[in-house]
Amino acid sequence: MARTRNALVAAVIKETGWSQTQMAAHVVRVAAETGVDELTAVSRSHIAMWISGTRPSGRAVPIVCETLSRKLGRVVTPADIGLGPADEPGPITDVWVSDTLSTITSLGGTAMDHARRNLLASSAYSAAAAALPAAAWWDRAPENARARRPLSTEEITPAHVDAVRETAAFFSLRDQRLGGRAGRAALAAYLHHDVTDYLGGRFTSEPLRRELTSAAAELAYLAGWMGFDGGEHALAQRYFTLAVRLAAEADDAPLAGHTLRAMAHQAVDLGHPAQAVRLAEASVAHRRYTLAHPREKALLGVVHAKALAAAGQRKPALGALLRAEDDLRQADATTSDHEPGRVFFFGEASLAHETACTLRALGDLTGAEKEFRRSVRTRRVQQHARTHAVTLGYLGAVQARQGHLDAAVTTWTQALDTMNGIQSGRARDTVVQMRRALSPLRGRGGATATALDDRARQILSRVG
After folding, report:
1. Containing H/E element for 93?
2. pLDDT (0 to 100) of residue 383
3. Which of 76, 157, 253, 455 has the most neighbouring CB atoms within 10 Å?
4. Residue 325 to residues 28, 99, 298, 302, 447: CA-CA distances in angstroms?
5. Reduced to 3 states, what is the DSSP secondary structure of residue 94?
């Protein structure tokens, strides 16, 4: 049977201005970012076959959609390119308009179902679909949530709010110590079942509704952060978006800013500096910054600086660093009962870590090494083992880039010492980068480097 030319995919590719060879190269790039190894060999001939009517196999459809979405700055669905419906999850298409409780239920089912989770894990982070809603949406969100009819007769009390906040505090501590892949299924189950039931219950007052919704938003944010740390970026993006929606429904501007900051962090790590700047600027805009506690202001500000640095905006980045330092100084000098628990981890060590990342992006390796060292020196290792391991990995990489190989080997040895029991995709990535940097040394008879590489290879099977 003769194939029918896919005029839709041909038209969208033409709209990008790419040649078939360029299209293939961008598909490979998105596939590599997502870990879809079978697509890293895509070539011009594959693109020609898809245009001629051959349907891409395996997990290619969502990767092709995301590749085109990034280039065109809008969401491209499988149907838009003549490849729908697809079995694989595609880009987020209605994140700001779908029903919140239905979204939680759907996400919870995905997070707990192994097959659905694997499908989403192969889906790409969607840069195009991360665009923020218009200002009017933020104004309508609390009103729409107030108008939502109860789904049950269960009366929600302050005890329910306390239970959700206590759960968030528990999993946040666990994440800091063991990494985002530890306990994530239990958190998803609690959010999917208990918290969804609470949100659908009866509220005796508007303040109580806002408090419960804010607590739920914080739990959704944490689920997103754990997914991000675990390397499940598409799932993390969906949870972050859910958290922003819930924070908006609670009219909790600082919590919305806190989550937008995490989304900016993710965008920086995945190599989307323009998107990172937009998200970071949104996190420090208006009430999200002005109503935040000074410690949270410092956290928002330093990630803003990192995003600006990733985008090559040196002067604004340095200015944002100075503001973050001032905010943290004010926080440390202020005794307040109103500091949100979600920023318990952010102090001198965390500020130094993010400052070092900013300076590294600006090409100041000497300054970055100094700040990474300050972070290592001032962190409480037992409570923050995951971040400590990541910081040591970054410090070793900066030392290696400067040619200080003996110092790098010593630092990386300390990093591996810290990783026992940690389940973190970010920690794992530092070990992968370490092995790449050690590769040329092994061939020159470096016994110490060879021994370290052997140990790193063994740890890779346990970290995450």
Report:
1. none
2. 83
3. 76
4. 40, 40, 7, 8, 42
5. coil
Q: Quick one: tokens of 40?
A: 């890293």
Confidence (pLDDT) at 90: 44
> Is the distance from CB of 390 to CB of 229 less than 8 angstroms?
no
Q: List pLDDT tens digits, range 105-120.
A: 766 655 555 545 554 5
pLDDT digits over 365-411, tens only?
999 999 999 999 999 888 888 899 999 999 999 999 998 988 998 99
| Distance separating the N- and C-terminal Cα atoms of the chain | 47
pLDDT at residue number 407: 92
Distances from the Cα of 314 to the Cαs of 1, 14, 256, in angstroms?
Answer: 58, 36, 26
The residue to which tokens 């009390």 are assigned: 157
What is the chain's length?
Answer: 464
DSSP of 62-119: HHHHHHHHHHHTS---TGGGT--S-SS------TTTS-HHHHHHHHHHHHH-HHHHHH
- Position 437 scores a pLDDT of 84
Q: Rounded CA gap, 392 and 185, in Å?
A: 28
Assign a CATH topology to domain 253-379: 1.25.40
Region of 36 on the Ramachandran plot (φ > 0 left; ψ -120 to 50 alpha; else beta): beta
* Residue 45 in tokens: 């001939």
Dihedral angle computed from the Cα positions of residues 322, 326, 332 and 333, in that order, rounded to the nearest 10 degrees: 160
What gap in Å lies between CA 325 and CA 330, rounded to an integer? Answer: 9
Which stretches of the chain drop beneath a pLDDT of 50? Answer: 86-94, 115, 119, 122, 445
* pTM of the predicted structure, to 2 decimals: 0.79
Contacts of 239 (CB under 8 A, 6+ apart): 107, 220, 221, 223, 224, 227
